[in-house]
Amino acid sequence: MTLDRRAFLHLGGASFVPWLIPGVELWAMNEDSTDKSTIGARLQDRILILVELQGGNDGLNTVVPFRDERYQQLRPKIGLKPKNIIDLGSHLGINSALAPLTKAWEDGDACWILGLGYPKPNRSHFRSIEIWETGSDSDEEITDGWLARMLKDHSDSRRAADGIVIGGGDTGPLFGDDLRVLNMDDPEDFSKQARTVPEVAQGKDARKALEHLIEVQKDIKKAAGIIDEKIKSGPDHGVRFPDTRFGRRCSVAADLITSGVPCPVIKLSIGGFDTHSDQLNKHSRLLAELSGGLAALRQALLTTGIWDRTLISTYSEFGRRARENGSQGTDHGTAAPHLLLGGAVKGGFSGRYPDLGKLNKDDLVHTTDYRRLYATIEQKWFELSPRDDVARGAKPLEILKTAAKSPKSNSGK
Amino acid sequence: MIHLLSVIDKIRKKSWISIAAILFCTVVVASPAITSSLTDDSPEKKKAEVDPKTKLLGIDGARHLLDRTVFGGSPESLNEYAKKTRKEAVDQLLSTLRVDAVTPLPSWSQKTPAEVRKLRNQNRAAFGKKRRQWENELRIWWTRELLSSPSPLTERLVLLWHGHFTSEMQKVRSPHAMLKQNNLFRTHAAGDYNKLLHAVALDPAMILYLDTHKSKKGSPNENFARELFELFGLGEGHYTERDIKEAASAFTGYSINPETGNARLIPRQHDSRRKTVLGRTGNFKAPDIVDSVLSKKACSEWIAQKFWKEFVSPTPDEKVVSKWAAQFRLSKLSIRSLLETILLSETFWSQEYRGALIKSPVDLVIGSLRRLNMSEVPAGLALRSISRLGQNLFDPPNVAGWPGGTDWIDATTLLNRRRFISEQLPTGMIYLVRSKPTKTEEKQKDSENPEADAESMNPDGMMNPKMGESMSDDAMQKERPQRLRNREMRRLRPQASARLEQLFQQFRQLFMSDTDAWIDWWLPLKPVTDADHDSIGFGRLKDVLLDPTFQLK
To answer: Scanning A56, B148, B270, B425, which has its CA 20 to 30 A from the CA of A67?
Structure first.
């Protein structure tokens, strides 16, 4: 299946209608199911899984403009040969290491957003991931993560946590005050740790510092309590996950989600994408590990009926230099495509591939501001009213099915 | 089974309310024979007011002082300080101050800027790798100094200045410049604030971090000028945007001399027009602006406030701060004198502020290791623990430094802190046993030989630096913990447990196994969790360390 990018053109009409006719606003908002009573409701029944590709994924060898002759000129040694490319139409193909995701593509569950990046790109790992995770401009410093700001006004004590980071790595986009974020390798180990945390009655003259400590201990106990209970009664999805590091992380995510642990965001990561040398094999291995884990995760969520309520998105600090370097690898670059998966995703390509003829010092020039992805998640996926400081005014992309199914939580517990 | 809480409660009441009881603790340590005569305090004794100048610190006071100034004290130093008056204790502490590190510098530090440049030009990719390795070695080097310095107070101040005058290595990208800056903080740690601020303004790492080198006549960069006023010298509200613009032009034309690696002024890139900054007008250059900042009352108050937050509580009492600031000005901005003022103030010793500060990851990790006489663990191990808890040495989160306080603790870091105590400390002991088996362990018999044990763990034994010498590759290698195989871990675990057990017994002996007085040594407040009184040995100590109050100081 192929989709033309024009199919995704944003039809902005609906949003200004209420402005024109006084009194219609309320009706229109209701229609949009974003009246006050339901704002935040999607945070209860929808899940976002973020996958960080650590080190800077080489976008050009992930989604390949293989019909463009300049591709082979830029990549004489490490350009993918046709046998290593799966043709997806629109003159684009994907690295054949991503084959496990073919089914998702065929079912229309996978969307590649092309050319994501930001102006004045920074090529430092640290700084650029900070930009991606905070949603900041290239030259401004923000401390809190973009998801932390999105969730700020929507705390919910029924959640086990606001976010769960699986398998180490930074809290990244979830970094911020007053957010309850857990870091765990697996739920059992977390519960084991949490069990050793003693119950503490609040002291009478507790100092602010002590009060805070006791508060956090309570959070941990509570999260562990909820997770314990849910996992015990969770359904068996029956899917075998690949025995890779990332596969195991996906398996933990599947356990948490299918058993109905209430938590709107899960963050996974897979490292090793900083492929400065001999990248062909390394990169294929990584993409195979990535797609193998994600395909199994999709299967588990399909089996248990949660796939329509799940959105998976990859991100990375940057793409890599379009022109290969002298060590059969690639150096730090700029824009890159990212993958969106989920039952509610409109399959296909979104946006435009950066023009290989218009490079900036051998680097791709981004075609879509990365914060449009954040706007989509904030406004279209979680159906929250846009905050100025989340997507910074970027418009959502039309990459989710308009009548996205939002069945009520069917776990019943 | 008796709840720890109630036992401690009793002891606290004694030692907090009654001065006699503090004496009691001290004397207990010194001589068990007198204990019985002192334990039956009369009510009069309890009420007796003793001049704080002659009052001995006792265990509780010594712990408070050492927790806040030197990451916590070993049992030996605790006992020593317990027997001193405030004045004696503070004098003693201040007399340890140093201006240099004892740990030999990493070997790459000897390379000249030209040599480094040559390496970089030869092969950029390889140099990038090398640089990252140096950066890591720099972190290890400082961690070793934090663990082994004979003057942890100096390192405490270096850390304070590092968080105040931040530079992030990930932006500076020069381990040489960062090392130089770290040493600058040491040279002026408790020295003259005038000199410190002047040195910082033209410090190469700072120049690179806050873009001074990009600031040229005609296109001034305001980054440094802004932070000089806002974060380093004055605080918000004591300058205008115009002051920043004018000051920025005074900082134009400074860059780094590629031959020496030091700052230099290139006159033709410097904007030499007359400027008006903070109410003064002249053909100012960088040092003139720094002098303007230093001349302001707000400057002394800003630093006094900073010190309050570092040493007293998160919420400064303005009256007291301005008194300290006045003293600070009288001393011509002597940092040592400010520190002395604070440490001898009633405020510092007030019960109101005990346990009001949350330990930073460095406090917790370095402090626990030093207190347990485990300073000889590979520094890389300690470094890893510190960064896992959210503090990356040489890379504060942003120009404002570590926010600290309650920001240190969330669900993830709190569990990691607990993991540090229950898992990483014992693992550290396994590394110690492995690298330095005691005579006892070598013989595999006669498990009661605490003296030999104590000697072998004496941190002084290891650090025997000759200044000017650099750290050998071998020494650096030892600081990087190799992953131990499971089999080896299993083999060494019993010995490590035995060693921890021995330590625990030593501690108990120091306190004459008197009730739970030794808990005063560990916790600034009454424990809030009930512990199993019957649990013995290191398990017991672990219970105490896992109490939330151990995270406080």
So the answer is: A56
